[in-house]
Amino acid sequence: MEQLKTLCNGSDRTRCPLLILVEFTRMRCTGETVFSTLLAGILCFITIFTGVFCSPSPIFAKTKTAKQVAYKSPEPVPTFYDDFDLESLDKAVAASLKYLKVIPPGKKFQVCGGALSAAALAGSLQDLAALIKRSKSAGEFNRQVREKFEVCRIGDGEIAGKVLVTGYFEPLVNGSLEKKKPYLIPLYRVPGDLVVTKDRDGKSVIGRQAANGVVPYWTREEIEKNGHLAGSELVYVDDPVSAFVLQIQGSGRVRLRDGSIRPIQFAGKNGRPYSSIGKLLVEQGVMPLADVTLPRIREYLDQHPEEREKILHHNESFIFFKWGDSSARGAIGEVLIPGRSVALDHKSYPPGIMAILHSRKPIVDDKGEVKEWRDFTRFVLNQDAGSAIKGPGRVDLFLGSGRYAEIAAGLMRQPGTLYLLVKKK
Questions:
Q1: CA–CA separation, 10 vs 8, rounded Å?
Q2: pLDDT tens per residue, the chain (425 residues)?
Q3: What are the residue ranges spanned by the domains of the chain?
Q4: Secondary structure of 86-110 in the HEC alphabet?
Q5: Is 172-276+315-323 the same fold as 2-168+337-423?
Q6: Which of 6, 23, 38, 386 could be cross-linked to 81 through a Cys-Cys bond (beta carbons 3.0 to 4.6 Å apart)?
């Protein structure tokens, strides 16, 4: 329990199936991360699905950063590089710019110690993207970053910029439009009796209309045991754990009986609090914290079917879906870009903003076993949100779909550092 209390501060939900999970709201890195290279990594055209990544170029000097004060530029500014492909960055930047252009011009965002409009954030993002493209050397890029951009991290002292990095992915589940064995587990559309109101503070309150007013909506257990949502079925899947994971991730794809694959997306939720089943299993002594991975949780539920329903019902939160017209979309309404889109707390970080993330990623073999954990640094964009992503200390990296994405998302729970870059006034 002491280990859990140390690593898991709070019990909100995360979409990383590794934590289906265990919640963590902040982890402190034990020291500053060493950065090493730049543009060769940007130009590498290798995707995250394969688990094979660019090696950093030796032309960049390693740099350590000093202890920070909230919203102040690090001294010295670290040397930045990117380990991913430029095409994915272009797509992610375009998505953020599309979002920022529809924000009311008077809306202000707090970032790097000042208030910036959406137009200013868009201009900063465009200039940074252009600089990445035209820079011919690492030295040129980093020199211009220092000259033209404010580099900052949120937080004071040693915790400045420190984040816990998890991953989420787009699951593929088997399904049927008709309830027919083995497709017996329904996924629901938003029910007609669900209402959303505002409290005195203007926050959304989700419930259902009853004779005495709006009351809390049904829990997961009440929905699944009592048939309250009969008539709201969207599709049926063949496995209750897969349905649960799909709800945690928030979106995915369904392979129907005719072989066609349809995207399915988040449409709403019952408003009940999320409770981690991974944390529950740790607290009950079923498994140690280090063993809480998606494969291990699945294995335990398969081996103890008599406990499965009770364990899943521990989480009262329930997600509703709709058919999508594209791949997964984030909280800003744009298609998520694997390896580039991240979910951050939009109260701490402006939606759409670009940041630089440093952490570690798993490199796996053909059997899905981790061969090593490799440092990575890349530009990411704040394009999604999640109930467990609260405060400046949490980052959820979207990994896309496929075998590697599922494996990596099930394993990532790494310390990292997050930097924001905005154009100097």
A1: 6
A2: 434 333 333 333 334 333 333 333 333 333 333 333 333 333 333 333 333 333 332 222 233 333 333 454 565 667 788 889 889 999 999 999 999 999 987 789 988 888 899 999 999 999 999 998 888 887 888 888 888 998 888 765 566 678 999 999 999 999 999 999 999 999 999 999 999 998 888 888 999 988 888 899 999 999 999 999 999 999 999 999 999 999 988 899 999 999 999 999 999 999 999 898 999 999 999 999 888 888 789 899 999 999 999 999 999 999 999 999 877 899 999 999 999 999 999 988 999 999 999 999 999 998 888 899 999 999 999 999 987 788 889 999 999 999 999 999 988 889 999 999 889 87
A3: 2-168+337-423, 172-276+315-323
A4: HHHHHHHHHHHHHHHCCCCCCCEEE
A5: no
A6: 38
Q: Quote the CA–CA distance of 200 and 220 in Å, as a whole number.
A: 27
Burial group, residue 117, by CB count within 10 angstroms (0-12, 13-18, 19+): middle
**CA torsion through residues 345, 347, 348, 354, sign:** positive
157, burial (CB in 10 Å: exposed 0-12, middle 13-18, buried 19+): exposed
Which overall architecture, per CATH, does domain 2-168+337-423 show? Beta Barrel (2.40)
Partner residues linked to 265 by β-bridges: 251, 322
* pTM (two decimals): 0.74
Verify cis geometry, omega within 30 degrees of 0, for the bond prior to 17.
Answer: no
Give me 43's structure tokens: 């130009």
Separation of CA 263 from chain center: 18
Task: Write down the residue that tokens 């593929």 correspond to.
Answer: 172
Backbone angles phi, psi at 301, to 5 degrees: -65, -35
Quick one: 172-276+315-323 is in which CATH superfamily? Barwin-like endoglucanases (2.40.240.50)
Question: What does the alpha-carbon distance between residue 397 and residue 409 come to, in Å, rounded to a whole number?
Answer: 9
CA distances, 12 to each of 388, 396, 423 (Å): 4, 13, 34
Which residue stretches of 35-149 are H helix?
Answer: 39-43, 86-100, 118-134, 138-148
